[in-house]
Amino acid sequence: MAFQIIMLVCMLPIVPIIYVMLANETKPKKNIILGVTLPYDAREDAAVIDICKKYRRNLKITTLILAVMPVAFFFVPWFSVVLTLYMLWIDVVIIIPYVIYIKANQKLKALKKENKWFSEWSELTVVDTKAASVEPKRLSVYWMLPPVLISLIPIVVTLCTKLHSEELGWMLFGYGINFVIVLLFVFLQRMIYRQKKESIDDNTDISLALTRVRQYNWSKFFLWTIYLTAAFSIFFWLFIYNGMAMLIISIIYTLLLLIISVRAELVTRVMQEKLSSQTGKLRYKDEDEHWIFGLFYYNPNDRHFIVNARVGIGTTINLALPAGKILMGFTALLLAAMPLLGVWCMAEEFTPLQTKIVGGEVLVEHLNTVYEENIDNIASTEMLKTLPRLGKVVGTATDNLLKGKFHQSDWGDCRVYLNPQKGPFLKLTLRDGNIVLIGGDEKVLHQISTAVLP
After folding, report:
1. How buried is 431 (Cβ within 10 angstroms: 0-12 exposed, 13-18 middle, 19+ buried)?
2. Which of 40, 354, 404, 422 could form a disulfide with 280 if both were Cys (CB 3.0 to 4.6 A apart)?
3. Using N-to-C axis directions, what is the helix angle for 145-161 and 168-191, rounded to 10°?
4. For residue range 123-156, what is the model confidence (pLDDT) as tens digits?
5. What whole-number distance in Å separates Cα of residue 26 and Cα of residue 52?
6. What are the phi and psi torsion angles at 159 (to 5°)?
7. What's the CA gap between 23 and 11, in Å, rounded?
């Protein structure tokens, strides 16, 4: 039940975020409605209004259905099955609302063609050279230096205190990922100023204002993100052995990132909507032919790899470039492969763990041999009827399987291979002082205990 609640808290916010972003596409921004460029007068056309109205209604109904679907997952008792269902649900949540959007986009595009709502610039790639030549006011890179240094603290301290510990590798890996993410966000914050400039008509002042609005809000977003990630890296380090605290911190960090990213985009949209409210009356930029469904940018004449997205949050990529095709293919493959994580977890959860004693060796098997120890290396054994409180460090922790490295307040780090629902359990104290907890058939555990020399 706890896992279902955690997954629901983490995943459910995706539904309203997608709804708010897509519902907002019916408001004209830079002369664009539902990814289609329209002249000023067409905004009040009865057919346009009807398409937008039906689109919002269908989107709302679909969103409500998607939001209540996870309730059914609470009746599923298996961790791996629940995870698989959530992975499939996320794919559906991401794809179905965009299918509704694409249908509305195609209807509006057909209406545009029928009414010949085209700009005299429709066949041209328009660039406001004056606006493009204006250098933006960039936030000093020194603002990014403190969080970069903060995110280095866990790495430096770990190298100083655990240089010869077997934990060094996985700790440095975790802390290193956080440090790399901070550096990535610093890079993206600088890239904001190098994106293709906004332009909608021959009014340079509006073009400059539109560009500055996006640069300001998203530059501020990345600055917040850099500091949040640095703070997360510190909490990750301080609570590395507390699984519940780590989970809570990760959820808070993720939710904060979602909130500030959605806020950055919505504030940008509102301001750009006001700035472009009176445009589209004469000549205006119309690049619909370069936007597939208003979602995917494909322009072989544009060498920009990253461009501002028409739909959704932030930026998108130019699919006309080889790197764009590769990245899009990788993203699609990742979405398709997400449910496979649940399938792998099913194999983990439904394969019983077996403990054997073979030729003086203690073997624990689960899909393969996960633990092997010579009887002579075991100093003592102790049969436990109940498990002590354990915190996962690296490995698997489900209702019916604990496998990997765990932390116990009295023992420190230990290895655990057992089904917590089926006792008793055997505590092995090795001659080097390490502790291993194993489970399995009670007769086998007694055989192991008897075979260990006093």
Report:
1. exposed
2. 40
3. 170
4. 545 544 444 445 556 677 788 899 999 999 999 9
5. 6
6. -65, -35
7. 20
Structure token pair of residue 172: 């440095």
Residue range 410-445, pLDDT digits in tens: 888 889 998 888 889 998 998 888 899 988 888 888
165-185 core/surface letters (b: 16 or more CB in 10 A; e: else): eeeeeebbebbbebbebbbeb
Q: What single-letter amino acid sits at 357?
A: I
Closest residue by Cα to residue 372 from 360, 381, 390? 360
CA neighbor of 192 nearest in space, from 322, 321, 306, 361: 306
Nearest to 354 by CA among 367, 336, 344: 367
Q: How far apart are CA 245 and CA 412, in angstroms?
A: 18
SS3 of the chain: the string is: CHHHHHHHHHHCCHHHHHHHHHHHHHCCECCEECCEECCHHHHHCHHHHHHHHHHHHHHHHHHHHHHHHHHHHHHCCCHHHHHHHHHHHHHHHHHHHHHHHHHHHHHHHHHHHHHCCCCCCCCCCCCCHHHHHCCCCCCCHHHHHHHHHHHHHHHHHHHHHCCCCCCHHHHHHHHHHHHHHHHHHHHHHHHHHHCCCCCCCCCHHHHHHHHHHHHHHHHHHHHHHHHHHHHHHHHHHHCCCCHHHHHHHHHHHHHHHHHHHHHHHHHHHHHHHHHCCCCCCCCCCCCHHHEECCCEECCCCCCCCEEECCCCCCEEEECCCHHHHHHHHHHHHHHHHHHHHHHHHHHHHHCCCEEEEECCEEEEEECEEEEEEEHHHEEEEEEECCCCCCEEEEEEEECCEEEEEEEECCCEEEEEEECCCCCCEEEEEECCCCEEEECCCHHHHHHHHHHCCC
Is the peptide bond between 147 and the residue preceding it cis, with omega within 30 degrees of 0? Answer: no
Nearest partner of 116 among 286, 278, 292, 299, judged by Cα: 286
Q: List Cβ neighbours of 105 (8 Å cut-off, separation of 6 or more).
A: 34, 35, 36, 293, 294, 295
Q: Residue 311: its pLDDT value, please?
A: 76
Question: 247 and 5 in contact (C-beta within 8 Å)?
Answer: no
- Which tokens go with 80? 């791996």
Q: Which token pair is 216?
A: 């300001």
